[in-house]
């Protein structure tokens, strides 16, 4: 059964956790404190490669309030976290004297107060034998990782397709390192009780934290509880379990007291991942009618030494357009860089910039409107697999987005549109976002007072999970919104998927659907032979839930309230576990579709100053069924702001020694309100067929096309093609 969105789904309700957040009573990881709690501070390597020659700890150990100083010389053996199908865990910290990247932890200082720990941290004297770090993507000495997960794709004959083309594009695009920078500084609080451990952590995946800490210390997972009721943003930074989390638990185990650790902003640049820089070559060929004859996307990005968090950049180009001949290939160079991670729209943010810039270049090469070129090459089915998509509303995105934007008013000639001294440009990009849905579980209970408790060990990183899962549960159980409480962020709850890859709403929503249907089934089972019940003998397919009762779909007068059934059977509650695991595409004859989008940007360029201002952006999105237009719109707007940052501002700068040179929010530029123009969002999708609630994830799609749309608009405004992000004024002068 699929839900019929009628009451609570759609236009949107306010965030159920909004009042807690605006009154400052939502508890973020760093807000938790315990009696007798001590504070840990990290000491980081000041070189990017080499060895620790010596460590002098006496001064730090003798400083006021210091309880412990832990370095590689006295740290115990720690095991690496287990491999998972999702994000891989970094190597454990403080295991030897090697330095693999700038900012690597070389010590932890634990003291009575955070201030004492910081002061003592400066007294830890580490002597390095520095080596020359590998820092450049194209350094021939760097070991190269080639397609470890088999995601490269090939079809047809690209060389023949290029040879047969009437027009071709062959260009190199680059994107810089970028840092996730959630506002909330990541924090961990660890409390041991024997071999049991309670942890508060800034995480998008509490179960990953539990599994990694259990492995690190060789203790059972069942004794570890990870609590993450709120996170101050993640953008991917919370997907992996970082060394500082392990070190906080180690500090607490060492001094046998609770320990809190809060990262500093500079530590957020080296300790919780980043989006890696890329060099990408795109080759396109098309015939005179604009049909693609060849598409080749080769991407190179970086990976840390001894890391295996592969993240493909080019792979989605294989299925973005109908083209008989395609090659996509990803390689990664091992460098002495801090460990990367997913950053909002992992891989695709970088890959789409290259592909959609190249499509724009091709449109000029053949003299065709950029939007028309996309429509000419529309992939009705998934071209790599030859199967239909579970849904695809990209054509509606193109058409309705163009209309809302006023694309038809665009003069196709570059440099032709002006407003006084400002050059005006219109640019656009298409987005075909990947699909990702890990298995997930949830539990639902209906209680004698008529309220429901639904929960899962998932997180809400600001995306609206609390809110949409409350709505969905209330809808499925036929209860008013305020009669449902949704719990998350606790590993004692049923096993949950990571909040990542735009997959949680599909995964968790499907599990909640299963659990809520299971509860209704439990009520039907309870009254199956109950002569007093009007529902006796009824099947799940025949009933709906409305107004706190179960009733026949085709005769709503026949039904009974949950509370009445529980009372008559002397039950306090009925509970059901639900789970979701997506089917294999082959088994259902379709390819599960992620979100699609078309994004349109108007920019204004001051040619004398090289200044680019974004005037407006329209995003038309196929996100399947939208559970809450208000929070979904916020997701697209937030993604768009991230895209504007990527296009014009963001760049993590590494100096020739491997040090991050701009590791503060004063030096690493992100958009502020004055950079953000009118952002319009329209949802054009239909319910998807691949999951029972018809949803697709919208957490990342809003970012993906923005950099290309802006770069394409800058070309239209100025005739200058900028293939290297960010588009700073020096590149336009
Ligand atoms: Mo997202 S980068 O998968 O949190």
What best-fitting shape do the alpha-carbon axes yield? Answer: globular
- Largest sheet composition: 7 strands, mixed
Rg for CA atoms: 27 Å
Bound molecules: dioxothiomolybdenum(VI) ion
Proportion of residues in extended strands: 25-35%
Helix content: 25-40%
CATH architecture of the largest domain: 2-Layer Sandwich
Terminal Cα span: 59 Å
Tell me the number of structural domains. Answer: 3
CATH T-level fold name of the largest domain: Aldehyde Oxidoreductase, domain 4
Structural class comes to alpha+beta
Strand order within the widest beta sheet: 3-5-1-13-10-11-12
Task: Count up the helices.
Answer: 19
Q: What is the number of strand segments?
A: 30
CATH class of the largest domain equals: Alpha Beta
Q: Keyphrases for this structure?
A:
3 domains, Aldehyde Oxidoreductase, domain 4, globular, 25% helix, 26% strand, 733 residues, binds dioxothiomolybdenum(VI) ion, 30 strands, 7-stranded mixed sheet
Topology record:
Layout: H1 18-22, E1 38-44, E2 50-56, H2 58-61, E3 66-71, E4 98-99, E5 105-111, H3 114-121, E6 125-130, E7 144-146, E8 153-155, H4 158-163, E9 167-175, E10 187-193, E11 196-201, H5 206-217, E12 224-227, H6 243-255, E13 259-262, H7 265-271, E14 278-286, E15 292-304, H8 317-320, E16 326-335, H9 348-366, H10 370-376, E17 381-382, E18 387-388, H11 394-405, E19 417-419, E20 422-432, E21 440-447, E22 452-455, H12 465-477, E23 484-487, H13 504-526, E24 543-546, E25 549-552, E26 555-561, H14 562-568, E27 573-580, H15 585-588, E28 596-606, E29 611-622, H16 629-648, E30 678-683, H17 701-704, H18 706-718, H19 729-732
Helix pairs in contact: 5-6, 9-18, 12-13, 16-18
Bound molecules: dioxothiomolybdenum(VI) ion.
Dioxothiomolybdenum(VI) ion is lined by residues 204, 234-236, 239, 342-344, 346, 500-501.
């Amino acid at each position: 059964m699929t839900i019929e969105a009628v009451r609570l789904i759609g236009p949107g309700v306010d965030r159920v956790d909004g009042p807690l957040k605006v009154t400052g009573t939502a508890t973020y990881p760093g807000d938790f404190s315990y009696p007798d709690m001590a504070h840990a501070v990290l000491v980081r390597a000041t070189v990017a490669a080499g060895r620790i020659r010596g460590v002098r700890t006496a001064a730090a150990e003798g400083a006021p309030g210091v309880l412990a100083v832990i370095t590689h010389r006295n740290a115990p053996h720690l095991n690496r976290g287990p491999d998972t199908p999702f994000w891989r865990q970094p190597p454990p910290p403080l295991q030897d004297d090697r330095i693999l990247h700038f900012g690597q932890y070389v010590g932890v200082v634990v003291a009575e107060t955070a201030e004492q720990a910081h002061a003592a941290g400066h007294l830890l004297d580490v002597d390095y034998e520095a080596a020359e770090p590998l820092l450049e993507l194209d350094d021939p000495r760097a070991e190269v990782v080639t397609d470890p997960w088999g995601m490269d794709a090939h079809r047809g004959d690209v060389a023949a397709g290029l040879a047969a083309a009437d027009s071709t594009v062959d260009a190199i695009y680059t994107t810089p390192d970028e840092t996730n920078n959630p506002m909330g500084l990541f924090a961990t609080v660890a409390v041991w009780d024997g071999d049991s451990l309670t942890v508060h952590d800034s995480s998008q995946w509490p179960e990953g934290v539990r599994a990694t800490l259990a492995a690190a210390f060789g203790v059972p997972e069942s004794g570890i509880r990870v609590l993450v009721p709120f996170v101050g943003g993640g953008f991917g930074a919370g997907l992996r379990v970082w060394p500082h989390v392990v070190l906080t638990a180690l500090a607490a185990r060492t001094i046998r007291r609770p320990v809190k650790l809060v990262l500093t902003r500079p530590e957020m640049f080296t300790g919780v991942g980043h989006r890696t820089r890329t060099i990408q070559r795109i080759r396109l060929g098309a015939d005179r009618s604009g049909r693609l004859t060849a598409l080749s996307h080769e991407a190179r990005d970086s990976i840390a030494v001894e890391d295996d968090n592969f993240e493909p950049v080019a792979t989605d180009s294989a299925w973005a357009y109908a083209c008989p001949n395609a090659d996509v290939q990803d390689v990664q160079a091992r460098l002495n860089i801090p460990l990367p991670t997913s950053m909002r729209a992992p891989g695709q943010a970088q890959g789409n910039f290259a592909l959609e810039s190249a499509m724009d270049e091709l449109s000029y090469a053949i003299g065709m409107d950029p939007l028309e070129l996309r429509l000419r090459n529309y992939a009705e089915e998934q071209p790599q697999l030859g199967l239909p998509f579970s849904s695809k509303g990209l054509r509606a995105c193109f058409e309705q987005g163009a209309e809302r934007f006023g694309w038809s008013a665009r003069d196709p000639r570059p440099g032709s549109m002006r407003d006084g001294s400002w050059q005006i440009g219109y640019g656009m990009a298409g987005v075909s976002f990947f699909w990702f849905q890990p298995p997930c579980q949830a539990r639902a209970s209906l209680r004698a007072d008529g309220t429901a408790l639904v929960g899962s060990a998932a997180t809400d990183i600001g995306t609206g999970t609390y809110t949409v899962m409350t709505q969905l549960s209330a809808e499925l159980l036929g209860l008013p919104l305020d009669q449902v409480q949704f719990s998350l962020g606790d590993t004692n709850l049923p096993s949950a998927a990571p909040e990542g890859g735009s997959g949680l709403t599909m995964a968790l929503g499907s599990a909640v659907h299963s659990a809520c249907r299971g509860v209704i089934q439990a009520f039907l089972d309870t009254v199956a032979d109950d002569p007093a019940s009007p529902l006796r003998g009824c099947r799940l397919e025949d009933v709906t839930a409305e107004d706190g009762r179960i009733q026949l779909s085709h005769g709503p007068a026949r039904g009974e309230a949950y509370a009445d059934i529980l009372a008559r059977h002397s039950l306090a509650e009925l509970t059901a576990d639900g789970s979701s695991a997506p089917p294999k595409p082959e088994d259902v004859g379709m390819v599960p579709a992620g979100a699609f989008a078309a994004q349109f940007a108007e920019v204004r360029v001051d040619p004398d100053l090289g200044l680019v201002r974004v005037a407006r952006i329209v995003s038309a999105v196929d996100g399947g069924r939208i559970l809450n237009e208000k929070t979904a719109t916020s997701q697209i707007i937030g993604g768009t702001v991230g895209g504007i940052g990527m296009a014009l501002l963001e760049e993590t700068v590494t100096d020739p020694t491997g040090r991050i040179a701009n590791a503060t929010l004063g030096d690493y530029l992100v958009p502020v309100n004055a950079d953000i123009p009118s952002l319009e969002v329209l949802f054009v999708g239909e319910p998807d067929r691949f999951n029972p609630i018809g949803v697709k994830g919208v957490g990342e799609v809003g970012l993906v096309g923005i950099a290309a749309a802006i770069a394409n608009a800058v070309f239209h405004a100025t005739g200058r093609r900028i293939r290297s992000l960010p588009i700073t004024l020096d590149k336009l002068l």
